[in-house]
Amino acid sequence: MKTVLPITDGAIRETLQIARSHGPTPYVRERAHAVLLSSRGFPMAQIADIFEVQYQTVSRWLDDWEDYGIRGLYKTHDGGKKPIYNSEEELRIKELVAKEPRRISYVQSKIEEETGKSASKTTIGRIIKKLGMVYKRLRKSCKHKRDEEQFQRSKAALKDAQEAEDKGLISACPKTLKPLKNTA
C-alpha cells in the first residue's frame, strides 16, 4: 500500500497546512489535504472515499508529491493540441502580415512553402491576434455588379420619398399612416 512517509520537517508540514487552508485553487487545497492525511497513516482507499475520487487519482497525487514536492500539488497542462508553429515561425508570420496585411492567403501559402506546415486562415488569424495585431476579414463589395443607372434612379427616388416624408405628405411607418395633405 502506497503512503507518504510521515512528514517530520516542520516547515514542509506548515506549508502543506497553509496550502490546505489557503491554497490558490480548490484542487491544490484538496491535494495538500490528501498528502497530509497520507502522512498521518490514512490508507489511499479511505482518502479516495473522503474526497470522492478514484483510488488511482489519489495514487497519482501522492506520486506527484513524491516526485515534485509542493509543485506536484499543481496541475500541469496536459490537454489540447500542440501549436502548429513555434515562436520563430510565428514571428515570420508577423513579418509576412506586415508586408501583405490584406492578403492572409498569401501569408498562408508563403509560410506553408517555407515550413512545410499547413494551417487554416482562421489559425493564421488567431496567431496574428496573439501577436498583438488586429486581423479583420475584408468585406466584399458588390459595387462592381450593380447597374449604375438603376442605382442612381433608386437613389433619387429614395431622396424624393424622404423629402415627402419630411413635408408630411407620406408616413414611413405603415401603422401610423397619415392621410395625404391636399397640396392644391
Largest beta-sheet details: none
- Element pattern in H and E: HHHHHHHH
User: What is the total tally of β strands?
Assistant: 0
Strand content: under 5%
How many domain regions? 3
Percent of residues in helices comes to 55-70%
Overall 3D form? elongated
Mean pLDDT: 86
Query: What is the structural class?
Result: mainly alpha
Terminal CA distance reads: 105 Å
* Low-confidence regions: none
Number of helices: 8
User: Radius of gyration in whole Å, from Cα?
Assistant: 34 Å
What is this entry, summarized?
This protein has helices at residues 10-22, 26-39, 44-51, 55-68, 87-99, 104-115, 121-130, 148-167. It has 184 residues and is mainly α.
Account of the protein in words:
The protein is mainly alpha-helical. It has 3 domains: 10-73, no CATH class; 87-130; 143-176. The protein contains 8 helices and no strands. It has helices at residues 10-22, 26-39, 44-51, 55-68, 87-99, 104-115, 121-130, 148-167. The radius of gyration is 34 Å and the shape is elongated. Pfam families: HTH_23, HTH_33.
Structural key phrases:
Helix-turn-helix domain-containing protein, Homeodomain-like_sf, 8 helices, single chain, mainly alpha, 184 residues, Winged_HTH_dom
